[in-house]
Specification:
Oligomer: heterotrimer
CATH class of the largest domain in chain C: Alpha Beta
Distance between the termini of chain B: 54 Å
CATH class of the largest domain in chain B: Alpha Beta
CATH architecture of the largest domain in chain B: Alpha-Beta Complex
Distance between the termini of chain C: 61 Å
Order of helices and strands of chain C: EEHEEEHHHH
Shape of chain C: elongated
Largest interface: B-C, 59 and 62 residues
Helix content of chain B: 25-40%
Shape of chain B: globular
Bound molecules: flavin-adenine dinucleotide, FE2/S2 (inorganic) cluster
Number of helices of chain B: 18
Number of strands of chain B: 32
Helix content of chain C: 25-40%
CATH topology of the largest domain in chain C: Ubiquitin-like (UB roll)
Number of helices of chain C: 5
Chains: A alpha+beta, B alpha+beta, C alpha+beta
CATH superfamily of the largest domain in chain C: Beta-grasp domain
Structural class of chain B: alpha+beta
CATH superfamily of the largest domain in chain B: Aldehyde oxidase/xanthine dehydrogenase, a/b hammerhead
Radius of gyration of chain C: 16 Å
Number of domains of chain B: 3
């Protein structure tokens, strides 16, 4: 289990990195935390001819609050920010509690010390937490190449199994998480075989209530139930205009399990079991999100 | 009592095989079969040989006369009517590959990285054959054969009988009949296997470092195979990072090929298995299917058991029938079962070879009998603990002969035991009565799904043939102890030191132990069947006793006192009542080895003795495990609330080490019960050959184990010990099944298989609806 | 292009300079280039934790880093925990010996390197926290119970609540 040989580059700036990627084309891969790429290389499942190591590109590592003039800006996270830094960020805890809640579910501290936010999103593993969380939060992804820059909403970024809207030569450089609306509550729940494993099923929920406690918006997303993160539109519709009740939660859970997802079977879980988990976790996560929304009047 | 080996291990200074680094060392990678079953038409390594950094590439054709199937490591016991077809593994596959991962070619290069690069250059042409995967289908007529010279995939067939089961059945109030399955798992020691070899041309000596549990047999076998004197071969099993059974084989192909290549190339050669290889090339265990029935009287008295089972032996069967015979023998448990009819068929499949893994087939037997008792209890309306109590052997029945043959070819005889108090202790520790009467009904009323389980087991341990030890008192006063049994974490160093220290009246810290190095000691068999402490420990004891006699003899002359009046204490010999006087052991050692002058005729120099111990038969440890679980029926997640172990492994030399063995065994058992399963598809491909997908339990998955020791000393050895290495893992599957089933009593789920998983539990609940 | 790259790294306080292939894993570099064989390798895909070392004080998997990536960084291995001779144990090592927190000892270096930064941040952890912190390190021998006990001992807490 030793990686095949490759050419290795250590750009110090983003521009250098982009130039190297442009020069080496499809043979080159960016190396972020390496926590997905290096295992794949050790198994020789991945054999990139060249690696452009982003670890010395300091400008890609930050967490900051963008000012939008109205007091509640987006939280901007540089692609090379370590997952551990996000987990520990007070800004993230305040501005994006859903993200903060999900972080400890990603692997183990030893992995999160290296793994990056951008790497996880660019890798787009359907069982990864961050893609589903970002989809629930309606994050925007800034992508850059030697020739230009564009911004892609999460809903258009994940294209399929380990596939994203990123083009060859393009790097994900920043993730912008918009602020939550007032009276919003979020919850993240997952079930994994062991602590730190990729989940059998996970759910991220964001609900926003009106002053009378009725749901004005709900975004529920799942991981590990498809080729990428899955947005539960039917479950969302069930909630629209409704106040919290046990029946409502069951209806939403039922909609999610029967209409929103078409989960795969694998050695760890059958499709039927995954559906069951979708229903249970949806109900539990929504209950929590509603409760938190009610406690978040501002 | 701290372990003497720990300081080195904790500071990173202990030598493991992969740590061996010699000048000019070469590294090995193996090309392994991608097919479970295929005819090899050609293996072309020419391109690989030409790659820079590659020193040699060997295929079966290059081995010449050295290409030989391995020896039959464990010949089966002489069971009447036994059919046994030995087909042992080969160093490199020649005409056919029989499981995924079977070695096809060996690359030797300047680094492991380069060796792996060269694997891609080897061109293999193979005609895939249908794979034999399913145990039952394997015996169906027309099924492709793993070994074509045999008429079918039958590896062995054996029937053992005790009493008259047909009569028992006719008299029974009820017959409880079920089918049970146990599936495969990996031993998954955290250290993979490794072999390093160095041929010293000038000294004409071969040194082999090997992660083996049996260095001496490996040395003897290698000498024979390579045409060397045994004394020319030194095998060292240094620190070994966990054994659990599969590190005892003879031979793994790599164990033969690496030394052979080192001699041929005149350079040191090392191969270290990686985790992926480990999933294919290191032996595994546990696939069995049992059709069993229990004949039981109305009051729960067991009248007899009949069990017919299939055992998956994998592609080859070098380890004979140890595993299925253990299953067969362990089924009888601590119970007085007057009639027993047990028939098994071992089957070749296109999967990795099966040899003992911690428990070695015993868990299957325990699973079958314990589950049958649970179902009987339910049907007869008897409490689960009570039905067990009614059938336990009484203390006055020992030694108890079960009338069938054990794996060591001796009749299955329990040497000693006291079973009912162990059951009572477990019930008390887990508060069984209160749980069943008060807590469970209360929690159930609140909608919680809690369950309790209690299972009993016996374990035949400490079998022969023999082990030896040499004890030497050095002039420094320190004591050297050498024995052939290696250690893979069981703390043998410490236990052996304690045994010797006690006999010689020295501090255990003064006993320097060397194990697992054939240069230091070269008679013995190895660490298996929980026998280290029992057999080698007894040999250490015997050698120490012999040295003690020499000490007393010499000291009585030197001190002019009767031996009976002498005391060994604090590293000195003195006359009773005169602790200040006497002689230090070191001084005596010097006197025992004079440089000038005359010695008395018949005197051996030095304070040294070698002794051997071979038990007539194994000693029988026993125990009771109990557990409380809570299940979330919505998600099928199981939480272990409490885990209690009462065990009796005879005299306990070091309670800390014994408890550690139990903790590890229970964790392994929980892994087998709920996390670990090797999943093969119908092509014989292993679907989860990584630690990402093969789930070893972690710290958050295993409970604290509450242990109670009971000591019924074995009369079969001077130490009074019985083995403990496997005990924790043996009853766990049965216990887990019982407790989970109890928690889910309202769903009607019946558990007849291990391993479970949340997914499987969910399916069972769906089926029960 | 020269297949070798320079790496200059401080390991346990000692500066080392080597020219290595970029694909050389940090674990192999430590073990086979520097001879620091206390860092063990059990899976090379990030799961077992045996290879855990400290990179600038944080626990990381050395099997999931290339040696060249450590250029200019500070690495601590198990050999760096006690004094050079290995005579005086780090308090955590001493607690492991006292509480029988190791059997074969193969997982132990990785476990220790995981726990050192954990205990720095959580000087008084409860059992749940300890077990979660350990969940990224596989041990096949101990069942973890005495590892937990060793951590509690190192924190000055009485060992296990039960057992
Ligand atoms: C034992 C273990 C358990 C794990 N468990 C989980 C888990 O439970 N949940 C989970 O989500 N993850 C898990 N992971 C994966 C971990 O979170 C990874 O860190 C993450 O998926 C990838 O991030 P990285 O920074 O390491 O990226 P890398 O491994 O360096 O890169 C991953 C891929 O993304 C590309 N890439 C990286 N950065 C960029 C960029 N900025 N722009 C474009 N492409 C880029 C790379 O070329 C590569 O193809 C686990 C990993 C391990 C080893
Ligand atoms: S060897 Fe690095 S985590 Fe297993
Ligand atoms: S002590 Fe052997 S793996 Fe942990």
């Amino acid at each position: 289990m030793k990686p095949a040989p490759f050419d290795y580059f250590t750009p110090a700036t983003l521009d250098e990195a982009l130039a190297l990627l442009a020069e080496h084309g499809a043979d080159a891969k960016p190396l972020a935390g390496g926590q997905s790429l290096i295992p794949a290389m050790n198994f020789r499942l991945a054999r990139p001819a060249a690696l452009v190591d982003l670890n010395r590109v300091g400008e890609l590592s930050y967490i900051r609050s963008e000012r939008d003039g109205r007091g509640g800006g987006a939280t901007a996270i540089g692609a090379m920010t370590r997952q551990r830094a996000v987990e520990r960020s007070e800004l993230v805890a305040r501005a994006a509690p859903l993200l903060a809640e999900a972080m400890p579910s990603i692997a183990h501290p030893q992995i999160r010390n290296r793994g990056t936010v951008g790497g996880s999103i660019a890798h787009a593993d359907p069982s990864a937490e961050l893609p589903a969380v970002m989809l629930a939060l309606e994050a925007r992804f800034r992508a850059r190449s030697a020739t230009g820059e564009r911004s892609v909403p999460a809903s258009e970024f994940f294209k399929g199994l380990l596939e994203t809207a990123l083009q060859p030569g393009e790097l994900l450089v920043e993730i912008a998480v918009p602020p939550l609306l007032p009276r919003s509550g979020t919850a993240f729940l997952e079930l994994a075989r062991r602590h730190g494993d990729y989940a059998l099923v996970g759910v991220a929920a964001v609900v926003t209530l009106d002053a009378r406690g009725r749901c004005t918006a709900a975004r529920i997303t799942f991981l590990s139930v498809g080729d990428g993160p899955v947005l539960a539109t039917e479950a969302g519709k069930t909630l629209a205009g409704q106040a919290l009740s046990e029946e409502l939660l069951r209806a939403a859970a039922d909609a999610a399990a029967t209409r929103d997802v078409d989960p795969p079977s694998d050695i760890h879980a059958s499709a039927a079991y995954r559906r069951q988990l979708v229903a249970v976790l949806t109900r539990r996560a929504l209950a929590r999100a509603f409760e938190r929304a009610e406690g978040n009047p501002s | 009592m701290r372990r003497s080996e720990d300081a080195r291990l904790l500071t990173g200074r202990a030598l493991f095989v992969d740590d061996v680094r010699l000048d000019g060392m070469l590294h090995v990678a193996f090309l392994r079969s991608q097919h479970a079953h295929a005819r090899l038409t050609s293996v072309d390594a020419s391109a690989a040989r030409g790659r820079p950094g590659v020193v040699a590439v060997y295929t079966a054709a290059d081995l010449g006369d050295y290409w030989r199937p391995g020896p039959l490591l464990v010949p089966p016991p002489p069971i009447a009517g036994l059919v046994f077809n030995p087909c042992t593994q080969v160093p490199l596959a020649k005409d056919k590959v029989r499981h995924v991962g079977e070695a096809v070619a060996m690359v030797v290069a300047e680094s492991r990285y380069l060796a792996e690069d060269a694997l891609d250059d080897i061109v293999v042409e193979a005609e895939p054959l249908p794979a034999v995967v399913d145990l039952e289908a394997a015996l169906a007529p027309g099924t492709p054969r793993v070994h074509e010279h045999l008429p079918s995939n039958l590896a062995a067939h054996a029937v053992q009988r005790k009493g008259d089961y047909a009569r028992a059945k006719a008299r029974a109030h009820a017959i409880i009949k079920r089918r049970f399955r146990y599936d495969r798992g990996a031993s998954a020691a955290i250290e993979n296997r490794a072999v390093a070899a160095h041929w010293d041309q000038r000294a004409e000596e071969l040194t082999v470092w090997d992660t083996t549990q049996a260095p001496i047999p490996i040395r003897n076998g290698l000498a024979q195979l390579l045409g060397l004197l045994e004394s020319q071969v030194r095998v060292v099993a240094p620190y070994v990072g966990g054994g659990f059974g599969p590190k005892i084989m003879m031979f793994y192909p790599e164990e033969v090929l690496v030394p052979w290549a080192a001699m041929r190339l005149g350079r040191p050669v090392k191969w270290t298995e990686d985790r992926q290889e480990n999933f294919f090339a290191t032996t595994q265990e546990r696939g069995q299917i049992h059709d069993a029935e229990l004949a039981v009287a109305k009051d729960g008295t067991v009248l007899g058991v009949k069990d017919v089972f299939l055992h998956d032996t994998g592609a080859y069967d070098p380890y004979g029938l140890t595993v299925p015979i253990n299953s067969q023998c362990t089924l009888l448990g601590p119970y007085d079962i007057p009639s027993y009819e047990s028939e098994f068929t071992a089957v070749f499949t296109n999967k990795t070879i099966v040899t003992p893994v911690r428990g070695a087939g015993r868990q299957h037997g325990v699973f079958v009998i314990e589950r049958l008792l649970d179902f009987a209890a339910r049907e007869l309306g008897i409490d689960r603990a009570e039905i067990r109590r009614r059938n336990l052997l009484r203390p006055d029945q020992f030694p108890f002969n079960n009338d069938i043959l054990f794996q060591d070819s001796a009749p299955l005889t329990y040497d000693s035991g006291d079973y009912e108090p162990a059951l009572d202790a477990a019930l008390k520790a887990i508060d069984y009565g209160r749980f069943v009467r008060e807590e469970q009904p209360r929690l159930r009323a609140a909608g919680r799904h809690v369950g309790i389980g209690v299972v009993c087991y016996v374990e035949g341990t400490g079998i022969g043939p023999y082990e030896g030890a040499r004890v030497t008192v050095e002039p420094s006063g320190r004591v050297r102890l050498a024995t052939g049994v290696g250690t893979q974490g069981q703390g043998h160093f410490t236990v052996f030191a304690q045994i010797v220290a006690e006999v010689l009246g020295v501090d255990a810290g003064e006993v320097h132990v060397v194990t697992g190095d054939t240069r230091e000691f070269h008679w013995g068999t190895g660490t298996f069947a929980s026998r280290g402490a029992v057999v080698a420990g007894s040999a250490c004891h015997a050698a120490a006793v012999a040295v003690r006699a020499k000490v007393l003899d010499l000291a009585s002359r030197e001190l002019e006192a009767a031996a009976a009046d002498l005391v060994l204490d604090g590293g000195r010999v003195h006359v009773r009542g005169d602790p200040g006087g006497g002689l230090a052991l070191g001084a005596l050692a010097l006197k025992a080895n004079p440089l000038r002058g005359a010695v008395r005729p018949g005197t051996e120099p030095g304070l040294e003795a070698t002794a051997y111990f071979g038990p007539d038969r194994g000693s029988t440890a026993n125990g009771v495990h109990a557990m409380v679980v809570e299940v979330d029926p919505e998600t099928a997640q199981v939480e272990i609330k409490r885990y209690v172990v009462v065990h009796d492994c005879g005299r306990v030399i070091n309670p800390m080490i014994v408890e550690g063995q139990i903790h590890g065994g229970v964790a392994h058992g929980i892994g087998n019960a709920f996390y670990e399963q090797l999943v093969y598809d119908e092509e014989g491909q292993l679907l989860n050959a990584s630690f990402m997908d093969y789930l070893l339990p972690t710290a958050t998955d295993v409970p604290n184990v509450e242990t109670t020791h009971r000591e019924t000393p074995s009369p079969l050895n001077p130490v009074g010990a019985k083995g403990v290495g496997e005990a924790g893992a043996i009853p766990t599957g049965a216990l887990f099944a019982q407790a989970v089933e109890d928690a889910l009593a309202d769903t009607g789920v019946e558990i007849r298989e291990i391993p479970l998983s949340p997914n499987r539990l969910f399916e069972l609940m769906q089926e029960a609806r | 292009m020269d297949p070798h790259a320079n790496v200059e790294v401080t390991v346990n306080g000692v500066r080392h300079r080597r020219a290595v292939e970029p694909r050389l894993l940090l674990s192999d570099f430590l073990r086979h280039e520097l001879g620091l064989t206390g860092t063990h390798v059990g899976c090379e895909h990030g799961v077992c934790g045996a290879c855990t070392v400290l990179l600038d004080g944080d626990a990381v998997r050395s099997c999931l880093m290339f040696a060249v990536q450590a250029d200019g960084h500070d690495v601590t291995t198990v050999e760096g925990l006690s004094d050079g001779s290995g005579e005086t144990l780090h308090p955590l090592q001493a607690a492991f010996r006292e509480a029988h927190g190791l059997q074969c000892g193969f997982c132990t270096p990785g476990v220790l390197m995981t726990l050192v930064p954990f205990l720095r941040e959580h000087p008084d952890p409860d059992e749940r926290q300890i077990r979660e912190a350990l969940s990224g390190n596989l041990c096949r021998c101990t069942g973890y119970q005495n590892i937990v006990a060793a951590v509690r001992l190192a924190c000055g807490a009485p060992s296990s609540p039960r057992a």
